Amino acid sequence: MTIAILVAGAILGISAVLVVLRMTLGPTMLDRAISFDVLAAVLLAGIALDVAADRDADAVPILLVLTLLGFVGSVSIARFFPGSDDVDEPRLDEDPAGDEQASSDRADDGTFGRPTGGGLL
């Protein structure tokens, strides 16, 4: 068991060095952002390895918080990076005042033309 933990720690250390090298040399900002996300994943794996080696679960909440921060950071970088087609940009052929069809779909009871069944959806 100790040999497996040492080998896994060595692999994580080598991968951390390579990721820092990619972060330093990366030609674009997106390469640096992705390598930062990978470095966070390697850090998480290192903390998980320490938790497994010590058989002490005190660091598990730290793992959860770091995982959430890594996910939110990755999603925000992917969403707001130039060239992403997910960010809504105003189109030149649209009427800025609104769409006449959308206003005519609205019913008087405020349901906006949706069925109002008694279910959860």
TrEMBL record:
Pfam families: MrpF_PhaF (PF04066). It comes from the Bacteria. Keywords: Cell membrane, Membrane, Transmembrane, Transmembrane helix, Transport. Residues 82-121 are annotated as: Disordered. It is found in: Cell membrane. Signal peptide: none annotated. PANTHER family: NA(+)/H(+) ANTIPORTER SUBUNIT F1 (PTHR34702), NA(+)_H(+) ANTIPORTER SUBUNIT F (PTHR34702:SF1). This is Cation:proton antiporter. It comes from Nocardioides aquaticus. The lineage of its organism: Bacteria, Bacillati, Actinomycetota, Actinomycetes, Propionibacteriales.
